[in-house]
Amino acid sequence: MNVGLLSIVLLCAAIVIGFVRKVNIGLVALLFALALSKYAGIPEKTVIQGFNVNLFITLMGLTLLFSILKTNGTIDIMAKKIVSLAGNNKYLIPVMVYLVGFILTTIGPGAIPMLAIMPAFSIPIAIAKGYNPVMLALIGSFGIFSGRMSTITPEGILVYNLLSSQGIDITQAIKPMYMNMIITGIVLYIIAFIYYKGFSVKILREDNDKEQEQKLNKQQFLSLVGLIVMVILVIFGKWNAGLTSFAVSAVLLTLKAGGEKESVGGIPWGTLLMISGVSSMMGMVVETGGIKTLTTALAAIMTPNTSPAIMGATAGIMSWFSSGLGVVFPTLIPTVTNVAQVVGNVNPIELASMVVIGGTVTGVSPLSTTGALIIAMMLALDEKVGKFDNMKLFIELFAWSVVALVVLVILALLGVYKIFL
């Protein structure tokens, strides 16, 4: 069997075995990564290099910070205060969450820092108002996706520069690129809302006046200030979310805003192991040419009618194994002009839209920062959301990334993404 194809089979097998046998998927993935390296004669250091240090630091830093906020009660009060802003408009909360994600992303910071922050806010709000926490976390993410292609976001600047270098008029590309992302985000919002029955949200007991007037104590006030500082530095100062969270956590623990033992114990170590182990296996998929095997097979069946859908699917599949902003966009965007010429009767701007959307919507996968943080926050608030199977949630979020790609393919085949060309 082709080694690249074998790597894909082993990755899928690790997920299936972990889910069926209730074993940490990351451990099984590490087992298969090591076995594959020996079989293919690949140095062990390649397996280690596949360990996503940046993602690990981001997850550990953020979950430590929010573990502090959870143990001292800050998150509970924040949720009540934020939800109270909606007054009696309980059913507008999903819309508000979507718009917050969209607006804050499109004004400049881009998707990456916002995706790291959104689950920590949307999940407690969902718990406070009786919504499914996964639904509200997804809706917030879809809002972020929608605002990603603003001309002042990091990804917008990168993509438009890549298109410009191919001789494409950017003034003609901005509107379709931006609007296509919005269309996709709204469609996914509607699907998630219907699937999780957001229209039949459980009505919880309304907070009484005493709860509404609850004030922050010293520890909670310091924690809230620390959180605000972290958000500002990450979004506007473009600081690393994980390292900044560690720094703020150190200050808060030094000031006794939380207990170190309880806060460190609140980090979901099993989830970090699961994600990091799968990341190492994905590194082997890249090394053995597994991605090339997939993309080559898809490209071989392109026609003028199917090429946008196939390009989007290819970007989405690549994004499961690599960064959209760091790998998928700079790898595939430069090919759109040539692909359009070879296939014929295809607009390269539409193909570029497909790359961006496909490389974005899979962000809800638990193998990406967004999906991983959704799982981490669900674990951090376990007693609030009720006991759940984290491996089942792992599969559920991965399934959502597949659903997002299916939606992309259907919309592309229906010609929806041609509307604003």
Automatic annotation (TrEMBL):
Q: Where does the UniProt annotation locate this protein?
A: Membrane
* Matching InterPro entries: Cit_transptr-like_dom (IPR004680)
Which UniProt keywords are listed? Membrane, Transmembrane, Transmembrane helix, Transport
Give every Citrate transporter-like domain span: 21-356
Mind telling me which Pfam families this protein's record contains? CitMHS
Q: Which residue windows are transmembrane per the record?
A: 24-41, 53-71, 91-118, 130-149, 177-196, 222-255, 267-288, 309-333, 353-381, 393-420
Q: Report whether Membrane shows up as a keyword of the record.
A: yes
Q: How does it sit in the membrane?
A: Multi-pass membrane protein
Q: Which named protein is this?
A: Transporter, UIT1 family
Q: What lineage is on file?
A: Bacteria, Thermotogati, Synergistota, Synergistia, Synergistales
